[in-house]
Description:
- The protein has 11 helices and no strands.
- By secondary structure, the protein is mostly helical.
- The mean pLDDT is 80.
Amino acid sequence: MSDKTDTGSETNSEKQDSIVTHLMELRDRMIRIVAGLAVILVALLPFANELYSFVAEPLLRHLPAQSTMVAIDVASPFLTPFKLVLLLAFVITIPWTLYQLWSFVAPGLYRHEKRLVMPLLVSSSLLFYLGMVFAYFVVFPLVFGFFTRVTPDGVTMMTDISRYLDFVIKMFLAFGIAFEVPVFTFVMVRTGITTVEALSNARSYVIVAAFVLGMLLTPPDVISQVLLAIPVWLLFELGLLMSRVVQKNTANTSEENNNESRFEKMTEAEMEAELDAIEEAETEASENKIASSNTLRQTIAQADEDNESNTNKE
């Protein structure tokens, strides 16, 4: 009874130790994430105003000569650039954050899961950055040019720096997330949630959903809505293409493996013939063994006789 109790207590102790070890490792990973964010934040703080000017440049380029941006709140000239730097530090450290999370989860994954997850992490980060770049260099000039052109006569456009930053952050996140469509599509097909054929048949619904998403995530103008919907549709097609290629390669690999391991089923007559052949081979081997043994005995006996005759002659 005491042995069973000791065994149970040892098992519970091992489980607790394992949980504590995982929690400590998670704490270390979180500390590294925060430390990386703090390092980038401190490095960017001296350039906060320059970075804000760079982000505001698409709007400033289209403002009339008499118009400028304004700061309504007292603390906006300091807090708004700081907010921008904090967001930029978070975006820059996304690969570092994903790497730390990957290092924590990777030991519990199988080899094929590791081969799948790592490319997804890299591609998702690159696509998010690509979405932000597309928003800044393509969408912002068109949207701000449209807004300044439709400003009524007698109205001076003077945008608050804090509200402009909120608008820019919303656009960056919208396009960054929208550019993740190929990853979402590939994961859905890879995990078996849906198939390439089903998504291809639902293409018309995806296009409508892309325009609805553009309407919800962008300002109430047709330009930004279309500029978000069209890339989402094209990226959906890219995800389908990637899924087809990977699915085809997987099918070819599986077929090759099946061809290597495939064998023809034997009939009863063939099995009996095979067994008879094995028995004959065993019988022949046994007879050869007996014959070899007899030959060895005769050789030994002949040698003994020769020795005995030699002894007698002497």
